Structures are given as structure tokens and as C-alpha cells.
Amino acid sequence: MSFRRERYIEFGGPDGGDGGNGGDVILRVDPAQRTLYDYRRQKLFHAKNGAPGLGKQKHGQNGNHKFLDLPPGTLVSDAGTLEPIIDLTLEHTEHIIAKGGQGGRGNKRFASATNRAPKFAQPGMPGVEMKLKLELKLLADVGIVGLPNAGKSTLISSMSAARPKIADYPFTTLTPTLGMVEPPFGEPFAVADIPGLIEGAHEGIGLGIKFLKHIERTGILIHLIDVGEIDPENPLEAFNLINKELAMYSKKLAKKSQIVVLNKMDLTGAQNRVDSFKAAMPDLKILTISAATGQSVKPLVKLLASKLQKE
Ligand SMILES: Nc1nc2c(ncn2[C@@H]2O[C@H](COP(=O)(O)OP(=O)(O)OP(=O)(O)O)[C@@H](O)[C@H]2O)c(=O)[nH]1
Ligand SMILES: [Mg+2]
After folding, report:
1. What is the pTM of this model?
2. What stretches in the chain show pLDDT beneath 50?
3. Cα(213)–Cα(168) distance, rounded to whole angstroms?
4. CA nearest 3: which of 60, 55, 45?
């Protein structure tokens, strides 16, 4: 609250300016951050208060925002209810999580015909306060997709130290497994094995849909096809079915770069199926492996490492 006070002006009117707004607390997705380590040490963050309004209708300064830099893959939830609030995936995006309070209003604003000299001003509003839980989800660099029983879990266990359950029936894998692969050159990378996809997966048939969003974030897909067993008869059918499901789920998945890998080369009849697949898809680059015996798994790891390096 302030009144104009000047020599020769007998009744200076109200001239209190508005207060500044409080700063916001803003979450910023920064790919240079790899861990949440900093948030173990410091746990309380606040943006600056707005400055009070002044006489002569001077507006108080707005408080500075507080930016919290978080690695991509951070899931932010309410620490009390554990309800997820935001999943920080897109690099360099900013999200206001706690809005600063609005500045108060100076008495100048309240002048009216009936009250020319209001002796009150409106105080500022408090800012939003909240307690957050931050979790960093490991983002896989490579996702393995394929029909149930294609050998996805066998492949991840032959590339990494991960030991998922492997069995001779579909839907052995119920939740994704992550394995760290250490290639002979370049950075270690994470591979995710997800439950097998089946026809209608994009509509929620089977287990796959829950996990398609995980692989949406991976850099590269290994499209794994069984050429050893007879189900389905034709590996081309398997290939088309999976691609159709990926495309129906999202454009992003459809466009993701794929390495097509034909598995179970150690079984009889595999080479014949490879030949017919190649004849049908002459322009497609493929790799043939045996995840079970480890045959040609090393070249696959090298190919992944060099593709990831180029990304
Ligand atoms: N002979 C042979 N068998 C394999 C090979 N790779 C996997 N298998 C077998 O195929 C079956 C299925 O393997 P998994 O690794 O469990 O297959 P998956 O794709 O993870 O299956 P789901 O988790 O059910 O989708 C198991 O009996 C494996 O031992 C291979 O290269 N050669
Ligand atoms: Mg599996």
C-alpha cells in the first residue's frame, strides 16, 4: 500500500504497485544427466519469491524460476499417493511442476469512485509446494521383438549376464528383462527382452501391448524370427505379422531401425527356411544365428555396437 506524496499535491492518490509473481519450479529433461545422484544429497528446492510492489506504481520483480535437471527416463510421482505425475522422456523439454504464487495487487488497483484512497492491498498467493518421488527407469538401447518362443530370452542370456527364464512354451517371459551387453568396442549397452507379440497385440491381445511402449524408446530393434521349429510354417509370415503389429501400435515403432535376425540355425531344416525367406525378401539384410549355441552372436553384438555408435 502506498500513496503518492509530492510537494504541492495535496491528495496524492493510491500508487502501490503489484507484487511480483513467485518463480516456478520447473523440471527440465537433460540428456547430459545420467543418474539421480544429485537428488540424494539435496532434497529441498525452491524458486525465488516475487518482490513486493513499490510506491509510484512500481511492479515488484518476478522471482526467478528454479530448474531441476533430470535424466530422460525419470518417472515423477506424488510421494504421498505414489500416483505418477509425469514421465520425462522427451529430451530438452520443460515442465512446470510447482507454480509460483501470484503476486499481490497494490492498492492502486482497488481505487474506485466510492473509495478513492483504498488503505488495503491484496497480499500475494503462496506458491505450490509438493513432495515428489523420482525414479529412473533404465532405458534400453536395443529391444528384442518376435513371436513367443522365437528365442528372445535365450538371445539376451547369450549376449549378457541376464538370466531370464527360458522354456519351450510360449509366454515364458511375463515382464521385460534387461541385460547389459559389453561389446568388444564402444560403450556397454542395454538390451530388453519383452514378452512375445502375437496377432492383435496392438489391441491388447497377449501381453505385448504393455511393453510396446518400452521398446518405443529403444534405439534399435532386433526382430527375431525362429527358422528352426515349424510354427509358423513360414518365417515370412512371422516377420509380416510382427511388423504389422508394430505399425498398428504406433508410427514410431514402425519406423524404428530393425536388425532382422533368423534364429535356431542349429536345427535341421533351418537353412531351407532361410533360403525361402531370402528369396521372398531379396533386399532385406539379415543375420542368421543360433542363440542357444552362441553361433554368430558375436557379429550381432558388433553390429549393434557400431549402429549405436553412429546414433
Ligand atoms: N535349438 C535351438 N533352440 C533354441 C534356440 N534359441 C532358443 N531356443 C529354444 O526355444 C525355446 C524358447 O526360447 P525362449 O528364449 O524362452 O523364447 P522367447 O522368445 O523368450 O519366448 P517367450 O518369452 O515365451 O516369448 C526354448 O526351449 C529355447 O531353448 C536356438 O538357437 N536353437
Ligand atoms: Mg522369453
Report:
1. 0.66
2. none
3. 26
4. 55
- Ligand 1 geometric centre to CA of 266 (Å): 12
CB 253 within 8 A of CB 214: no
Report pLDDT digits (tens) over 59-108: 999 999 999 999 888 989 999 999 999 999 888 999 999 999 999 999 99
Nearest CA to ligand 1 atom 21: 149
One domain, residues 46 and 99: yes
CB 164 less than 6 A from any atom of ligand 1 = no
Which of 108, 137, 166 is the last residue before a domain boundary? 137
Atom of ligand 1 lying closest to residue 146 CA: 19
Q: How far is the CA of 195 from the centre of ligand 1 (A)?
A: 12
Q: Are residues 283 and 247 in the same domain?
A: yes
CATH of the domain at 7: 2.70.210.12
Q: Is the CB of 294 under 6 A from ligand 1?
A: no
- Which residue, chain included where needed, has cell 515382464? 175
pLDDT of residue 45: 95
Per-residue pLDDT tens digits for 222-255? 999 999 976 656 899 999 999 999 998 889 889 9
How many domains is the chain built from? 2
Structural domain of 194: 142-310
Give yes or no for a cis peptide into 232 (omega within 30° of 0).
yes
- Is 154 close to ligand 1, i.e. is its CB under 6 Å away? yes
Task: For residue 12, give every residue at least 6 positions away whose Cβ sits within 8 Å of its Cβ, in sequence order, or none.
Answer: 3, 4, 5, 6
Asked if residue 213 and residue 64 are part of one domain, the reply reads no
- Do 156 and 102 share a structural domain? no
